[in-house]
Amino acid sequence: MNSEVHQSQTPPLPSSISMIRTLGLIAMISGLLVVLVVQFTDPIIKEKERLALEQAVFRVFPGIDRETATRVSFLLSQQGLIRVDEASGSNDANLYALYNNNDGQLMGIALPAAAQGYQDVVRTLYGYDPECECIVGMVITKSTDTPGMGDKKSVEGNGQFMANFANLSVRLTADHSRLAHPIETVKHGTKTAPWQIDAISGATITSRAIGNGLNASAMTMVPLIKHHLNEIKESE
User: Fold this and answer.
1) Which tens digit of pLDDT belongs to each residue from 21-32?
2) What are phi and psi of 187, to 5 degrees?
3) Domain edges within the chain
4) What is the 8-class DSSP label of residue 39?
5) Pairing status of strand 184-186 against strand 196-198
6) pLDDT at 170 over 80
């Protein structure tokens, strides 16, 4: 008798269709919330990235600031030079040119570089001066290597190491097809040539990652820049 009463009071289990509908509704609402969050935060993130890039571009050119120059972004490849409209949300640019606000003259070219470091890829941005065929500045845009040795703050705070990039040679061969001397990272205190980077003592892997990234980028981009230099100069 008690068993019959207990069974009669047990609520029926929801049907499979009802459960599927509920789960589907939850998934739809969750997806909608994710889309709304992305739509809200994406412009904010992109604007922060744009400002960070703007700061980095001007930092690699000592003496040039926003009051005297304007940045223009390009995609440069074997197929040619294409101006990139950042307002459209495109992030395809791999070359950033600075032009004098008064006369439109090209003042410098900034280029991104990257190579594997100790823990992750070390990303940099460097300034290239086509007149001297040299790198005139470098900043770390991302590094998760050992704090206090290979991270962004430690590397950029090492004045002796950063001096490597005040006049680092990336001169081309006579036919402008390649670098006359690849960028080379050497053991701390053994630099003897203008295309060499004197590594940070205790952070050799990070130093080599920076050098390898600059070399890979320069080997590809500097000959292309030389080929399209007049076009870049006239694209302001």
Assistant:
1) 888 888 888 888
2) -60, 145
3) 36-233
4) H
5) parallel
6) yes
